[in-house]
Each structure stands twice: as C-alpha cells, then as structure tokens.
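Case study B.
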Amino acid sequence: MIEIGNLDFHYGPSQALHDITLNIAEREVTAFIGPSGCGKSTLLRCLNRMNDLIDGARISRGAIRIRGVDIHQRDVEVMELRKRVGMVFQKSNPFPKSIYENVVYGLRLQGVRDKTRLDEAVETSLRGAALWDEVKDRLHASGLSLSGGQQQRLCIARTIAIEPEVILMDEPCSALDPIATAKVEELIHQLKLRYTIVIVTHNMQQAARCSDRTAFFYLGKLIEFAPTREIFMTPSNPQTEAYVSGRFG
Amino acid sequence: MKRFFDSELELFRSKLILMGESSVRQARDAMKSLVEGDVSLAQRVIAADDELDRLEIEIDDEAVRYMTLRSPVATELRLVIVGMKASHDLERVGDEATNIAKRVVRLAAEPQLKPYVDLPRMAGIALEMLRDALDCFLDGDAEKALAVCRRDAEVDAINHQLYRELTSFMIEKPGTISRALELMFISKSIERIADHATNIAEEMVYLVRGKDIRHTDEVKRSGGAAALAGPSDAAGSDTRR
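Model:
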C-alpha cells in the first residue's frame, strides 16, 4: 500500500536517511525499531509530510507512493494527505476543549455541521478507540481532565474520526503506565482490521507483541525488514540480533 | 556490549556441557562394565545417576528463571529452550546407562552367553553420535549434527540383527532365555541412547540455524532395517518418546 523507494533524506547538510526501500502492507501493523537517531521517526514523519514543517528538511532522492501516488508531487494537497494518513504522537496532545469537541475537531474543519452526524462520529470513534464506556457520561468535560492513557486514546479517537487509511504512531505508549499501554496495544490489534498502522517504538516487546512486520534501522539505514517473528526469532543480520537481544553498542 | 547478566548464560552453557560430559561418561562406563564384567564399575554407574538428575532440574530451573526475568529472543531464546530439551535427553541417556549397568550386575551371576562383539560396536557408534551432537554445541557445526541424525539407522540395524540372533539362541536353548533377554534389553538401551543423541543433534541444528528439522526427509530415521522386524518386536527400535 505504501511504497518507499530508494529514499534519501537530509536535514540541511546532514543526511538522515540513506537509500530506504520498504513496502508497507495494507491492514497490517508495521513497526520501526532502532536506537535513538537511527531515522525511524524521520521516516515515519515523511509518510504524511510532517517534515515539510522543518526548515532545510528535504528528500534528495527516491519517492514515497501511497496507492501508487507520489505524495511529494506538487499537486498533492498536504491537508488532504494528512486526512488520509493520521498521526498519534508520543505525548498525548488533546486540545483544551471538551472530549466531544476534541473528537469532532477534524470534521468541523472539514465543514461538517450536521449534529446527528457529529454525534455519531463521536460515539463511533470513541468506541473505536475503546474509550466510549469510560467517557460517555461526560462528553462535555475537558479532554485534559482525562488520565494519560485516556488522553492518548482520545487522540486516537480524534485521528480515526476523520476516517484515515493509515495511522502513524510515534512512540504512542512511552508516557503510559503498563495498564494504559496494554489498552492501547489491544486497541492497535483491533484497529488493524480497518487501518494500516505504522508504529515507532523503543519498546522491543511492544514491537514483538503488536506488529506483523518489523523494520530495524541503524544510522539512517534500513538494516533488516521481515515478518516480526523472523526479526525476533531468526534475524538474518547480526546487528539486528544484537539490537533485539539488548546487546547493541 | 556486555550485559550484566551475560555471565548467567555462560553458567547455563557450562552446566549443559558438564551434563553432556557426565552422560557420555556414564554410557561409556556402563558398556565398559559389560565388556569387562566389572560389577563394581557398574555399581558406580548406578550410583552416579543422581548427579544427572540434579543437573537436569538445575538447568530447567535456570531456563525458566532466565526466560521470566531476561526476556531472551533469537539465538539466546533458542539456547535456553534447547538447553531444556537437551538436558532432558541427556538425563534419559543417564537412565539408559543405569539400566545397562543393572543388567550387568545381574548377568555377572551367570557365565557369559556369547562373546560381546556387536554390542560394543553398536555402543561405539551411539557414543560417537552423542559426542558429535554435543560437539555441535561447542563449535556450532550443524553439518556434523546432521550427520549424527543420518547414522541412527546404523544403530537400529545392529539392534535388529542382535534381536534375531538372540531370539534364535532362546529357541534353541531355553536355558539361555534370561541372559539373552538381558542382552536384548541392553541392545535396546544402546539403541535408545542413539535416539537421544539424534534428538540432541536435531536440537543443535535448531539452535544454530533456527530451523526445525524434526520429522523431515533430511533426518528420516531407519527405513529398511525397521521394516525387517515384525510387529511384535519387543526389542524393536524406532520408538520415539
């Protein structure tokens, strides 16, 4: 579904990604792992052009195609792209608005005014994010009144409200306790029935539990990309083995 | 990068090596006691079995602890899993050595039925298989382990040959029945030791290559020889537990 071909990426003079070629399959969870600074988040952010916002950041070679369309072509609307490719961040970032308004924020931006449709979207998205039962009686309370894990699931609800095709997750559980983490992981497992998910994680066991395929990056290069069970059971590259065993460095 | 718990894995490996050496020694001494009619050696083999039992429990215990606390993956996980399985096989090798030694003690009360030629030959092959399988643990030579799997048929063939030979002894002279039966069971014990060596060899291939070769054509055991034995073959081979 997403084809990354021979991608080179620079932040100003320094090259952050070297010749990355990788295909992401539809309705699967693909995990990006690797030590800090290996380029995994950079690559994730390329997938919905979040790097456009950074001065001097540029793709110097190669292309990213989503369903065959080069997403860096001039005629691609960035807003339209980000609607199709949603993102959940490391630190949950609900807007200082009610739970309800957080979920419908994207829809309102799109000009949806119909109350019934908005109500429906709130329930469907919150159910989809496994949060409905916990908040259905206080939809007009502030999003910031929720716990950390609930806030992260609210952000996921906000992302799925605009019905994207792809959800990018950048360390979605690193600020959560184990119970909240388990809930988000459970949610990822359900979301992949409908969405294509790419997750960046430092938690190796999380990649092992949640993903179908895993890509290991080091120093801006893709070292190994294979079904997750192979990466963790029989990695073909010694660097991958060292990293997943915690012997790296 | 060395991790603070790497020494635990080293200790685990050395325990398994120690267990391998002990089981080879037990099997070798059991056979030596038969050939030389050395009852006191047989008794030492019987007494020494406890050590293998203790090592098996220690290895299992350490494997479970390591998996729980260190979350191993890839080669390391295979090492721990293979360690558990191989230690079980090695403990069974020890049991078979003990069985042989007990029969040696009983046989010593009567005159020798026949010169021991095939039994030591068969035991020689089984011990070599066991040593080669264990060598693979030390040097990671999976080819050597694969060769072990293919030798199992040789041992099976000798076992069947002995079975036929000892059966004719019993038919001709009923007075030999008790001794012939003891020898038949010793033959069976050696055949089992070769089976355990084959299991360990398969486990070593899994450790080194991450590939499960059990029950594949690569290691199909003993075709022709087994077919010759009847279904009522009490001392027959090919039983895999």
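Chain B touches chain A through 13 residues (CB under 8 Å). The remaining cases will be described in the next quarterly update.
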